[in-house]
Amino acid sequence: xxxxxxxxxxxxxxxxxxxxxxxxxxxxxxxxxxxxxxxxxxxxxxxxxxxxxxxxxxxxxxxxxxxxxxxxxxxxxxxxxxxxxxxxxxxxxxxxxxxxxxxxxxxxxxxxxxxxxxxxxxxxxxxxxxxxxxxxxxxxxxxxxxxxxxxxxxxxxxxxxxxxxxxxxxxxxxxxxxxxxxxxxxxxxxxxxxxxxxxxxxxxxxxxxxxxxxxxxxxxxxxxxxxxxxxxxxxxxxxxxxxxxxxxxxxxxxxxxxxxxxxxxxxxxxxxxxxxxxxxxxxxxxxxxxxxxxxxxxxxxxxxxxxxxxxxxxxxxxxxx
Length: 321
Fold this sequence. Notes:
mainly alpha
């Protein structure tokens, strides 16, 4: 007599590409938001509002009335980390449940989750090191790396998993790479400028010892270089008839850089008012995202050609006289 085994079908929770894309974009927004709120903590001198980590005080995990508004501000920023974890965790689950499951998307989602966890630890070290400017600077730079991972995840959802192919001539690809490198240098030197300035996050926090005027001049020189390179890239893309998306991305980058430059100069010559410094931190995130948009818009991923087929040849970019 045959035994009939009942097989329970696996329960599936289908995740649409639209939902996955929205969750990925939410990661970008959330990571920009925590950079801005982290800046608010520093600009209100609330960096040590919770003087220890992972607890807020030696006796309490949450802020207490005796700690006043600074404790509320610092503890509130810590709570936002849990929001980032929820969004990143939901994105990872969605990437895993999405069909077809794509290894590249899952790995990028994992990278975002791990990046947020690393940022929480670095934030704790920052508090324990009494807001040492080098640790604060690392905290900000890692935020930019995390934005890179979140942006890559968002873009990969709509890309195939094949190799990348350039959409612009080799000289323009080199120019794009230089723009990305200079944009990153502007951010790093900007961190050094912040570490030399008055907004330390706490009245007793040390500064990095650099001359504020000298390092600010270096930062300004790099900004001028970045704007010049971005203008050259935009004009060159138009001259060679580059992809419309690349031309648009270069134009947006140029506009964002100019706006960020204006904010930077105004804040410098008005003794760094906190609202403008906060706007400048937001602008740093936007410049970086606009830079990444240019990088992604000058290449594309194509599906891997099936075995035995001849891959499509690249169409050269037309050059207008």
